[in-house]
Amino acid sequence: MSIHEAARTGFSSAADAYERGRPSYPAEVVRAVVERLGVGPGATVLDLGAGTGKLTRLLTPFGASLVAVEPIREMRDKLAAIVPEARAIEGTAEAIQLADRSVDAVVVAQAFHWFDGDRALAEIHRILRTGGHLGLVWNRRDESVPWVRESTAVLDARASDAPTYRSGAWRAAFDRTPAFTPLEELTFDTVQEVDAAGLDDRFGSVSYVAAMPEAERAALLAEIRRLATEAHGPGATRFRIPYRTSLYVCRAR
């Protein structure tokens, strides 16, 4: 399986930090996913690139049969332990180990930018039943807030060649494919509240940060803690990270 080195190295070493530090998804987003993708009794739903199951676990109350595909073993082991209701299997978006026309909906949270978009959409179309829906979800830090914008600049100064949602490059495959209807976007606001350790986990679980040598990673996280503390006031022990959460939905033709 082909996995970007930043993802392979970073996420395999940061599965615990990812689980502790990454935000969940707003209830409004979960409702929209359930309603727009038809998540419910009798449906089979695939969470592709599921990580530690941050979204998978939120779909379990709705009665669908859930399958979670995750290529990084450490992440997949976390998911299997936390969300035993889902069937966790190894695989990538470009090589999904499921039969043709075997699922009713596919959801991808925080992951599509890692995929080879053209190959992934071909595979997703192969396993979706006709008329089945694909939903993409991203929690993205709200950079209209100054300290968040400055933290992103700190990250960008040390960024690897890892693909990102922010680049928008992931959209190109959707522009090219005739297999899906155009993307519809819904946007929601949410806030994650963390302590100092949670702040480190949140930013330390960024793939290329997790892959850094320890001293370099520690210096970067210290700089982000400084920015957050200045923004929240001297002696702050809790920090609010604002997000815009986007849900994109399309349907298989």
Structure description:
- This protein is of the alpha/beta class and about 250 residues long.
- Helices cover about 40% and strands about 25% of the residues.
- Helix 5 (about 75-80) links the parallel strand 2 and strand 3.
- The longest helix has 19 residues, at about 215-230.
- The protein is globular.
- About 45% of the residues are buried.
Strand order of the largest sheet: 3-2-1-4-5-7-6
The string of secondary-structure elements, in order, is HHHEHEHEEHEHHEHHHE
Number of helices: 11
Here the CATH topology of one domain equals Rossmann fold
Q: Profile the largest sheet.
A: 7 strands, mixed
CATH architecture title of one domain: 3-Layer(aba) Sandwich
**Multimer state:** single chain
Averaged pLDDT, please? 96
Would you kindly provide a brief summary of this structure?
This protein is α/β, with parallel strands linked by helices and 253 residues long.
